[in-house]
Amino acid sequence: MTQSTETLTAPHPFGQEISQQQLIETFNQCRQWEDRYRQLILLAKKLPTLPDNLKQQDIEMSGCENRVWLGHQLLSDGNLHFYGDSEGRIVKGLLAIILTAIEGKTPKQISEAHLLALFHQLGLEQQLSGSRLNGVKSLIHTVQNITKHYIKG
Fold first, then answer.
1. Are the beta carbons of 43 and 96 closer than 8 angstroms?
2. 3-state SS track over the chain
3. Tell me, which fold does domain 20-152 have in CATH?
4. d(CA 111, CA 43)
5. Are residues 98 and 115 in contact, defined by beta-carbon separation less than 8 angstroms?
6. pLDDT over 90 (residue 3)
7. How many angstroms separate the CA atoms of 53 and 50, rounded?
8. Which of 13, 25, 71, 147 is the one with CA 20 to 30 A from 79?
9. 92, 47 contact by CB (below 8 A)
10. Domain limits of the chain?
11. pLDDT tens digits along 35-91
12. Is the pTM of this model over 0.85?
């Protein structure tokens, strides 16, 4: 995928240098929940902290135990760039997984993605607490609502 020369708001490596296939391969090597937990923390460290000026109320998710921000930018090629941050390391790692699956894709491609299935494939869905799983579902729901806005027809 070629990246245009336009300036991305809050660039990150997910979906570009870190692919969904790489995530699957990495997590499939994890035999214990602790290993998956460690991978989530490593992913969180790779997601740059959003500058304070981007942590705006209109992109802050409500109802989350940790503060979470999820913003997006429509690129000139019609693809979407998503960015975000969280105060919680695990939530930030979960956000990084979502960003990996949706970054730089068209709204139609994102709307057809089975994001929750990815968490199952990574062996995370069954390990997350109810509140964290609800948070993941809320993030996915927000992404889907954003993409619906851009899908014409």
1. yes
2. CCCCCCCCCCCCCECCCECHHHHHHHHHCCCCHHHHHHHHHHHHHHCCCCCHHHCCHHHECCCCCCCEEEEEEECCCCCEEEEEEECCHHHHHHHHHHHHHHCCECHHHHHHCCHHHHHHHCCCHHHCCHHHHHHHHHHHHHHHHHHHHHCCC
3. Sufe protein. Chain: A (3.90.1010)
4. 24
5. yes
6. no
7. 8
8. 25
9. yes
10. 20-152
11. 999 999 999 999 999 999 999 999 999 777 789 999 999 999 999 999 999 999 999
12. yes
Q: Which residues are catalytic?
A: 64
Question: Would you mind telling me the total number of residues written for the chain in this entry?
Answer: 153
CB within 8 Å of 91: residues ≥ 6 apart: 64, 65, 66, 68, 132, 135
The encoded tokens of residue 30 equal 């994890």
Do 99 and 93 meet the contact criterion of CB atoms below 8 Å apart? no
